[in-house]
Write a structure and sequence with these properties.
Blueprint: H1 16-22, H2 29-42, H3 50-75, H4 77-83, H5 98-116, H6 119-136, H7 148-170, H8 176-196, H9 201-207, H10 212-215, H11 218-242, H12 246-266, H13 270-296
């Protein structure tokens, strides 16, 4: 679809509410939750470091995640003009090249804030932005791959945000056991991202997006997603138990057992039960992240 086929943009600067809508605040929660898990896992005093906590939450949520959402909507503006014409860009509420300017401004602010919070945070921010641009824009367009797209999202939303939370609080590189746990939960989140693709199977087939439900079929993709979520959590349980964090290990075990129950329902009808699992199993998954962080931080 050509640029001229888009709705005629409204004149003048966009309203603040439309810019905020473009950044999709509902998507900020996962990276902010992972950041908070990183904060807890650090074991550092939260009251003594409250300013770093606030700055880190802003960085992982509205700044980096919000910027990535703007990039995604700009790159998908032609498709959205057909499927969701009421969105801020195709409707003209964020007109012209304003989205590009907002994305570049968000990228600059992200890097500056990351640099202010330390070299490791700066590195994590740079990698997250790289994933954000590569996920949506050419020539990489990782979202077209059912493997690379979910993996990039999982590493950004979970691993890099958790890494940032711990690094902000300790002022350096997280401990080895924290790095191991955040990497495991990042790999597990690949399964969550794969399940998210079930809501758009028909559209993905029509537009050529090679999501795993399209490439593998719905049941094999669901089986892969369940395995991807389960195996890393088993490894987390073993790691916590062998390092003397028995209570955390027990809590994660109970939460995983509950997830396995919901997985059995999911596998009966992956497309039909994926929304149910996203509302139940994913909640149990992220609660396990917190339980692990509490153990790592010495709270249990």
């Amino acid at each position: 679809m050509s640029e001229t086929a888009l709705p005629t943009p409204l004149s003048g600067a966009p309203a603040l509410r439309d810019i905020v809508e473009l950044t999709k605040p509902v998507t900020w929660f996962p990276p902010m939750w992972a950041f908070l898990c990183g904060v807890v896992a650090s074991g550092a005093s939260i009251p003594a470091n409250w300013l770093f906590l606030v700055a880190g939450l802003a960085l992982t949520g509205p700044v980096v995640c919000g910027t990535s959402q703007v990039i995604n909507d700009w790159c998908d503006r032609h498709v959205d003009a057909i499927n969701e014409p009421d969105r801020p860009i195709p409707s003209g509420r964020v007109p012209g090249r304003w989205p590009v300017g907002i994305a570049l401004f968000g990228t600059a602010v992200s890097l500056l804030l990351g640099a202010a919070l330390g070299p490791w945070v700066m590195l994590a921010t740079g990698v997250a932005l790289l994933f954000g641009w590569a996920y949506s824009s050419s020539p990489f367009r990782l979202k077209r791959s059912g493997w690379l797209g979910p993996l990039a999202c999982a590493l950004s939303y979970e691993g890099l945000s958790w890494f940032t939370g711990t690094s902000v609080m300790v002022g350096g590189l997280p401990a080895a056991n924290v790095l191991a746990v955040l990497l495991l939960y990042s790999l597990g989140a690949f399964g969550i991202m794969t399940l998210n693709d079930f809501k758009a199977v028909a559209g993905d087939r029509a537009t050529g997006l090679r999501s795993l439900p399209v490439v593998l079929g719905e049941r094999p993709a669901a089986l892969l997603a369940c395995a991807a979520m389960t195996v890393p959590q088993v490894a987390v349980i073993v790691l916590l138990a062998t390092q003397g964090m028995a209570l955390s290990a027990a809590i994660v075990t109970v939460l995983l057992a509950a997830q396995l129950y919901f997985m059995t329902r999911l596998l009966r009808d992956p497309a039909g039960y994926a929304p149910m699992y996203n509302a139940t199993g994913v909640l149990l998954y992220v609660l396990g992240m917190l339980a692990s962080a509490l153990g790592l931080g010495g709270y249990f």
